[in-house]
Write a structure and sequence with these properties.
Elements: E1 19-23, H1 31-39, E2 44-45, H2 54-63, H3 71-90, E3 95-99, H4 108-114, E4 118-123, H5 126-139, E5 145-149, E6 167-171, H6 181-194, E7 200-206, H7 211-217, H8 224-239, E8 249-256, E9 261-268, E10 272-276, E11 279-283, E12 288-295, H9 299-308, E13 311-318, E14 324-331
Parallel strand pairs: 1-5, 2-12, 3-4, 3-6, 4-5, 6-7
Antiparallel strand pairs: 7-14, 8-9, 9-12, 10-11, 13-14
The chain binds N,N,N-trimethyl-histidine.
Length: 339
């Protein structure tokens, strides 16, 4: 008899009809070479993008829920309370583009108010992006989701086939804070090329504040940030054939008041030698590897970098204590038609 034996039916999840996925196959580049040259500098450094392997991403998720780490919950509150205002800046039927969209968590706070013509999440991790886009499309059946797998930071190829309409780039999380001001200006200026004439940028920026509050946010009592910082070495071991021993390092984070930035370092507790492939790196006791900068802005200093990048701030939103901020930027129109 049919149906009593034979293979169990396989459930194939159908992709909802409101999601499109394009893969621009971002180039990985020579990661080991990049890592080695950072470690051969006078002040050793590792690019903070290497924090986010799967364990690092989970640890970061935990950081965002810590009592001391105010940025994520404060930004969410600002987005939630001002979604209608933000929708007015973005206008009806915009094409909302989010570089480094991850699980597209924050955009959910805006979608019902914005009603964009399309949402374009962009990420370098194809599998994760696809899952996140399908999930979102199922939750928002009216939303046209156009996911693009690309390395936005490199901005090497503009995705084709994006819907027409005013473009708004959503860049939350104070991710811009990882860049030095000069790099942030170049990055913002490059965003401008995507916007054509009338577009905008909706961006989240962490604010300068008391050293006590800032340092607590990066030195939490439970030590999650320390684990997050140390985990970068485990990830480097995997991707660069290295033999870092995390027990030889301790987490160090402080606010550099002259430069308005949190600096995270990993300080060597002993003299030792680390191997990466066939390269040896000598660490002396007390020497550090600089793993992250997280710049904090005042309303004035943020206004300065946006102006240098060719933008005007049309609106700014803060929480009551001005811990965090979200801004809507527009390109400054020039007479000669160039930006
Ligand atoms: C995601 C870069 C904004 O700088 O606060 C959190 C990363 N590092 N705790 C930040 C981070 C340590 C975070 N950014």
């Amino acid at each position: 008899m049919k149906g009593l034996s034979g293979p169990a039916p396989v459930l194939v999840k159908r992709q909802p009809s409101n999601v499109v996925f394009s893969d621009l196959h971002p180039r990985v580049g020579n990661r080991r070479q990049e890592i080695v040259s950072g470690l051969q500098k006078e002040q050793k450094s590792i690019n903070p993008k290497y924090f986010y392997d799967s364990r690092g991403s989970k640890l970061f998720e935990q950081i965002t829920e810590l009592p001391e780490y105010y940025p994520t919950r404060t930004e969410r509150q600002i987005l939630k309370s001002n979604a209608q205002d933000m929708a007015e800046c973005c206008g009806q039927n915009c094409v909302l583009i989010e570089p480094g969209s991850g699980s597209s968590e924050k955009v959910r706070l805006l979608l019902d108010s914005l009603e964009p013509a399309a949402y374009v999440p962009m990420d370098i991790s194809a599998d994760f992006l696809k899952l996140a886009a399908i999930q979102l499309a199922e939750e928002y059946p009216w939303l046209n989701v156009h996911a693009v797998c690309t390395d936005f930071a490199r901005q090497e190829n503009e995705p084709g086939g994006l819907p027409e309409g005013k473009r708004v780039i959503f860049y939350p999380g104070s991710t811009l804070g990882n860049m030095k001001p000069a790099e942030a200006i170049v990055f913002l200026r490059n965003l401008g090329h995507w916007l054509k004439r009338d577009g905008g940028v909706l961006i989240g920026i962490d604010m300068h504040k008391s050293t006590r509050v800032l340092e607590a946010a990066y030195n939490d009592e439970r030590g999650i940030t320390a684990l997050f910082n140390l985990n970068i070495l485990s990830n480097i071991n995997k991707i660069a054939d290295a033999n870092f021993d995390t027990s030889h390092f301790r987490h160090h984070a402080f606010y550099n008041q002259e430069k308005y930035r949190i600096e995270m370092h990993l300080v060597s507790k002993v003299n030792h030698v680390v191997r990466l492939g066939d390269t040896s790196i000598t660490m002396t006791c007390g020497e550090s590897i600089h793993t992250e900068n997280s710049y904090k802005y005042t309303p004035e200093s943020f206004q300065d970098i946006t102006a240098s990048a060719g933008f005007a701030i049309r609106s700014s939103w803060f929480d009551q204590q001005q811990l965090f901020s979200v801004h809507y930027l527009e390109l400054v129109r020039t007479n000669n038609g160039k930006n």
